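Hi all, posting the design record for the shared folder.

TITLE: backbone redesign
STEP: 1 of 1
STRUCTURE INPUT:
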């Protein structure tokens, strides 16, 4: 008899094709899509056993689903996690992790440089339920240390950050947390699981918006939480089961299939992003380029130690502040204006007026978000075409203020 394939012994690309697969009796090649709300039991005794968790079968799609489980198992293999739970969106994952761990009277320390919705949960939502928070400069380890209180339960950070691509020392931050049994959650969206492994650096939990690179083609929303079986069981499982932010089976099937091509897409996008970043640094009208793979990045050496690539994102500042940034964005032809990222299509956004618009000017500057900042998500197009598109768009800074831009 043929020896069963063990995906845990395979390399990442192989795991993403063959890992976490549940075959039906029909022996399908592609993973099956189970569009069902509930499941039928052989007996009332079996139903009772399922609800007592003594029978491992499925109960209800809000709790679990065969297609969703395949996605969870496969991405857990990639991340090196013992367990994973999928959610309806990336923000549902962040929300579940925070509320699943915290109670009134607890305290959170988080980096200031966060996606706007993440800061809303930390700064605005959690305090309504009696959870205090302190925001720190994520690159300053002394600030993490000084912010710890007797009631601190969670550290939360992004690295690289959205949108300024700061890189934080995850291992060092985790060492600070472990001194007093603080749990560390890392939002790893900008690095992707292909370029950074926070669990191996000491983190307790990793979250993703699967809407980004994991789907990678702008089709559906989703999120996922990864960690040890104990972490998921103690902090996540019941919260998700009882509150219901479940990923739909269809979306799970889409992102499950997308995992098969994730290494190819991310590798190509990161290579192109590095080339585009170097080209931007030489173009007139660009005052600053931020890319972790460039030697002029403030945390370049840390990024080399901690990451396996420089990210698929590039941030850059242009002359003329908001007006200049708008002129450049509006003059682009190949690159589209969108607040999404990690797509096969290259996308540009102006963070000060979109993803981070709710912050005051002072708060934006504190996060390094200037009026002239643009965030570029590099897609799968030929990088030379993207560079030519950026070059012609930057020429718009030389045009008269009342010139009309015609997009091709």
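Okay, here is what came back for every position:
SEQUENCE:
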């Amino acid at each position: 008899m043929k020896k069963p394939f063990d995906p845990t012994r395979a390399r990442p690309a192989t795991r993403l094709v063959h890992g976490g697969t549940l075959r039906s009796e029909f022996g399908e090649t592609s993973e099956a899509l189970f569009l069902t709300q509930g499941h039928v039991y052989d007996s009332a005794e079996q139903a009772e056993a399922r609800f007592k968790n003594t029978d491992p079968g499925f109960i209800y799609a809000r709790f679990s689903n065969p297609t969703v489980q395949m996605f969870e198992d496969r991405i857990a293999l990639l991340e090196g996690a013992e367990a994973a739970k999928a959610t309806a969106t990336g923000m549902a994952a962040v929300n579940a992790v925070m509320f699943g761990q915290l109670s009134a009277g607890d305290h959170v320390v988080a980096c200031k440089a966060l996606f706007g919705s993440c800061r809303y949960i930390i700064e605005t939502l959690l305090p309504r339920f009696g959870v205090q928070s302190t925001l720190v400069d994520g690159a300053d380890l002394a600030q993490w240390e000084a912010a710890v209180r007797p009631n601190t339960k969670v550290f939360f950070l992004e690295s690289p950050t959205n949108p300024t691509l700061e890189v934080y020392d995850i291992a060092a931050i985790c060492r600070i947390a472990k001194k007093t049994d603080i749990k560390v959650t890392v939002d790893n969206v900008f690095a992707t699981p292909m370029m950074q492994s926070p669990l191996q650096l000491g983190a307790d939990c990793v979250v993703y918006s699967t809407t980004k690179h994991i789907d990678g083609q702008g089709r559906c929303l989703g999120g996922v939480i990864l960690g040890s079986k104990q972490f998921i069981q103690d902090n996540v499982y019941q919260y998700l089961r009882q509150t219901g932010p479940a990923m739909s089976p269809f979306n799970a099937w889409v992102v499950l299939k997308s995992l098969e091509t994730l290494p190819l897409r991310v590798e190509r996008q990161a290579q192109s992003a590095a080339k585009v970043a170097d080209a931007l640094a030489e173009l007139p009208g660009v005052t600053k380029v931020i890319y972790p793979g460039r030697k002029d990045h403030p945390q370049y050496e840390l990024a080399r130690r901690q990451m396996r690539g420089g990210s698929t994102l590039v941030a850059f500042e242009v002359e003329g502040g908001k007006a200049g940034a708008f002129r450049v964005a509006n003059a682009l032809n190949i690159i589209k204006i969108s607040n999404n990222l990690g797509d096969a299509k290259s996308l540009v956004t102006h963070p000060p007026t979109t993803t981070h618009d709710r912050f005051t000017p002072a708060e934006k500057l504190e996060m390094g978000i200037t009026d002239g900042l643009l965030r570029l998500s590099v897609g799968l197009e030929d990088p030379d075409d993207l560079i030519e598109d950026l070059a012609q768009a930057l020429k718009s800074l030389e045009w008269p203020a009342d010139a009309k831009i015609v997009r091709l």
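COMMENT: The first strand starts at residue 83 and ends at 87.
Let me know if anyone wants the other runs.
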